[in-house]
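Side project, low priority. Logging it here so it doesn't get lost.
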Amino acid sequence: MRRLRGRTFIIGVAATLALTACGSSNTGSSASGGGLEKTTISVGVLAIGDVAGLYIANKKGYFKEEGLTVKPEILQSTQFAIPKLLSGALDVALGNYFTIISATEKTNDKFRFVADTYQAKSDVFDIVVPKDSPVQSVKDLKGKKISIAGLNSIAELAVSTTLRVSGLDPKKDVTYMPMAFPQAPAALKTGQIDAAWLTEPFLTGVQKDMGARKIADTMTGAMADFPIAGWTATEDWTKKYPKTMAAFQRAILKGQQAASGDRKAIENVLPDYTQIKPEVASVINLGAYPTSLSATRIQRVADLMLEYGYISKKIDVTPLLVPLPQ
């Protein structure tokens, strides 16, 4: 996926970066919090580029300006975030749109998107194989094992769409192996899987360390510029903590605006939570960081899910979106 420029790459599973700001109360309001119902919130994140806006917002003091302390917890995927949101262990989490929309239909759990986070661009999510693999094209993946970040997720939709374009049946012709991004490179190296669906920084890692080859960019055609994920909370949480939610939205929007307009701002925070070196952060491909919350854009996800049978009826995403503060 990424063009390497002879730079040294060190990849590791990120440790949680504590985001600190004023205040220490989890539930009370304070003068610095401007009457917020909750001044410290736990936020589920993944150690990938999608969440750069949040780390930028902290680094630039946007949460602090709102009287918020944000404590991130690094998770393997959105599937791990859902039970934590429902139990109250997390206040907000990075939620890929596919998984949250699917949960909304299948379990009737009421989630809300409070801000957009990430949008795909070319060569941001690729299928790769080992350098000596006999697989030369998508058609050659028939009968192979492919790792994806999670079943019933944006990962499955992206890979399945790519397979269909090449005439393969994703339900019959391949075996999906649910696997967190940090685990996939080792599994690819040992032959536990034949191919991996990866994003950064893991794509650059397998290319540099293993000479892995790109087989397909999964974000083309129907998936071009596809909405990937948004900051997600339960409906109950947004109703119980409306001022806290609005404060989070204001701060994260500033972070998204900085990420959207300043590549260097992203490069400055990526090493903090992904443990990649600054010189690598400067060359990896990144998606887009939306600065609005558009029902039209996110409706694309639900409509494609319906087309490919991942949901059984049309879902209007408009009620799932919490308008951004004016």
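Brief comment: The mean pLDDT is 88.
Revisit when time allows.
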